[in-house]
Amino acid sequence: CPVGTLAEVITFMSWSLAGTYLILNLVYRSNALACYAITTTTFFQTLTLFLPRSSPGVEKWLSSSWATIHAVLSVLAYAAFCLAALLAVMYLLKERQLKTHHLTSGTMTYPAVTNLELWMGRLVFAGFVLFTVGVITGFIRLENLPPAERQYDYKICWAVTVWIAFLALILAHRFHWLRRRNAAWLCVIFTALTILSFWGINSISTYHKF
Known about the structure:
- It is a single chain.
- Helices cover 75% and strands 0% of the residues.
- The chain is mostly helical.
- The longest helix is centred in the middle third of the chain and has 36 residues, at 65-100.
- The model has no long low-confidence stretch (mean pLDDT 79).
């Protein structure tokens, strides 16, 4: 799977996001999400034009099938989180305009806020499951390395932090420990921090140095 450079990872995530949107649209018939999904995908694809096309050292890490599965599942999880964040933004916009009784023509085409919240929660959960399996396969790959090459670095701490953050969000949303609006805001914030810190954390990682 072509996920050996940052450009390839972002491209794969873009297509994963588009594919997740198409599946969601087949199930729920929500065309209003199309403009957000297409805009996000276009932004990511444009970003890849300015990124390096080679990444020495990552190819050796991806030589194992466990590492490939780890990379693919993790990127799919990021795509699910991104789409969940887009749904959260739509929820926040429509919920605010409903409160002020000033719906615009754009938000009137959005699904009901209850549906937006439901889809957001399901996508966060799906992304969390994918990310969990991705983290597990990453540890399996790490344990299969020779002891001299085995290193636990910042990327592991970052992945565990992301996992804990989304687990807390899922539990808070499931047991109503947070208001729906706050849960939507946290979904947007956690996803933004995860994506924005991706390159920075990888730059100081041993096995993910892009």
